[in-house]
Amino acid sequence: MVVMVVLESSQENFIDEIVPFYLDHAHIKGRLVRLGKQTESLLANHSYPALVNQYIAEVISLAAVLSVDVKYEGVFTLQISSQPDQASLIRLITVDINTQGHIRAYAQWDQKILHHEQDFILNPPCLQEVFGRGFMVFTADLAHQIERYQAIVELQGKSLTDSMHHFFRQSDQIPTALVLHSRSGSKEREFVAGAVILQRLPFSGDPTPEQQDQDSDDWFTNLSLLGTLTRKELLNPDLSSFDLLYRLFHERNIHILKAKPLKSQCSCSLNRIQKMLENFSDDDRVGMAVDGQIEIICEFCNKKYTLKA
Ligand SMILES: [Zn+2]
Asked: Which CATH class is domain 268-309?
């Protein structure tokens, strides 16, 4: 007798996390990011249209796969902005992820999105329609460094993935491949996104021509395996990150490291707001005040702070 147990698909199973891994005896480094439940609390304090929420989920996933190299205390920021003089549906998305895996985001968008929301369900707009000729800016702000690392990427192609591949080819980056997908979740204001990145690490010594050929072959084999990953698999809440990676790369000596959880949490505080206000002159602070009180609302979490001028 065969007993079949049908498990209901549930968003609850989806764990928000970054999973680092190595392939081919650590010649290739990879990261998997999956984001689901945390988007609900992250987006709950805003009334963004679905298109904006979807892009926020994608940008967080992208920031998360790129941020893992930040080993020290700090914040990694990914900002996408349109050109001020050009038509765009989304003007700005800013995403922060810190070393603890705390994520926060906010967006500015054009009201005309609301007129096309139904059309977008069947015909989602391409990247150029969403941002125009925009830019992505990555900033790593590390606590122990005075200078910030910054990279600027011109938006190219039809998707964020196209833009990133263009950036990887143009810059001196080590060979890198990226897969990024998203979809709406089971609850209102919940979006599911996932990303995988592979990076071919440079040789530590002088490789022989045979070793270089082998390394190239290995890289292309891994790219082919990554190419078999479907959107459905990446965003399947019932497929654990471990099972997903093992299914894809079990022939490639995969070594999966400890996952880092992602959590929706804003870093704003009364203390930080007070410090920020100290940078203004007494006259400026008086100018900001109404009835002797300065009111500041955090753009990320919408929390309101009231301080004496
Ligand atoms: Zn906040």
From this structure: alpha beta
Q: How many A from CA of 303 to the centre of ligand 1? A: 6
Give the per-residue pLDDT at 45.
85
Tell me phi and psi for residue 168, to 5 degrees. -60, -40
- For the chain, the domains span 13-267, 268-309
CA 7 to ligand 1 center in whole angstroms: 38
Per-residue pLDDT, 50: 92
pLDDT greater than 60 at residue 126: yes
Q: Beta strand pairing status for 304-308 and 293-297?
A: antiparallel
Model's pTM, two decimal places?
A: 0.90
Cα of 255 from ligand 1 centre, angstroms: 37
Quote the pLDDT of residue 120.
87
Distance 96 CA to ligand 1 centre (A): 11
Q: Which residues surround ligand 1, an ion (CB under 5 A)?
A: 266, 268, 298, 300-301, 303
Distance 104 CA to ligand 1 centre (A): 8
CATH fold label, 13-267: Hsp33 domain (3.55.30)
The whole-angstrom separation of Cα 192 and Cα 234 is 10
Question: Are the C-beta atoms of residues 277 and 294 closer than 8 Å to each other?
Answer: yes
Please list the residues that pair with 193 across neighbouring strands. 35, 182
Residues facing 23 on adjacent strands: 28
**pLDDT value, residue 9:** 42
What is residue 8's predicted lDDT score, i.e. its pLDDT? 41
